[in-house]
Amino acid sequence: xxxxxxxxxxxxxxxxxxxxxxxxxxxxxxxxxxxxxxxxxxxxxxxxxxxxxxxxxxxxxxxxxxxxxxxxxxxxxxxxxxxxxxxxxxxxxxxxxxxxxxxxxxxxxxxxxxxxxxxxxxxxxx
Length: 126
Description:
Layout: H1 4-11, H2 15-22, H3 30-42, H4 49-56, E1 61-66, H5 72-87, E2 91-96, H6 101-112, E3 118-121
Helix pairs in contact: 1-2, 1-3
């Protein structure tokens, strides 16, 4: 799998230029942008999302914890959350628990490990 150093070498540009192209930075000439994109296409390059998230310090992902997902009420809730998340360039991940506290804790660990940026929870208790 190609990395940005290889792309830079093949495109005869700096690693910083490749990074700027990947991040749609405005200070790259159209010629260099086209060349970098051409090399990435030839190499079938896919950016490493984990590395990007690490550099940015956020994942643009919101977890939605629900007991289960096959209920019309939860479906409406998730659709509303997803619609609003997309409007702000976030994605949602549905995290069903089936009322299992151990599973719920693992989802909170995702937040602690910064694998998601936030959680929306529906955790009814008797």
